[in-house]
Fold this protein.
Amino acid sequence: MSLNDNTARIVFDLGKSAADFIITEIKLEEIVLVWPTSAESIEKYKTTVYPNPVSDNVYINNRDGFQEYSILNVQGEVLKSGNLFSYMNQISMVRYPPGMYFIVLNNGNTRHSVKLVKR
């Protein structure tokens, strides 16, 4: 899945029930996706992503238990991904041209993105 994925997925977890389950109608009125655009957007968390803008290396001080990161371009393509360590992580941005990117942090239950400018 990418940021510009135009497909929808709905999952129903029925637990351990073996009974038949029929859905006859689903109506979605409106879906609004909001992507955080700065470090301030995740200020309720202790994790920090810096420096921003970045030249060579970006650092993720992972203090909230995020397990994985992905770097996406503005088209939503995943350029790089990997596992995060607790506390300090260093990711090289040297190979990417100047522009805007997103770092997506994921721990399985929570997903946050931070806008990152490469100069």
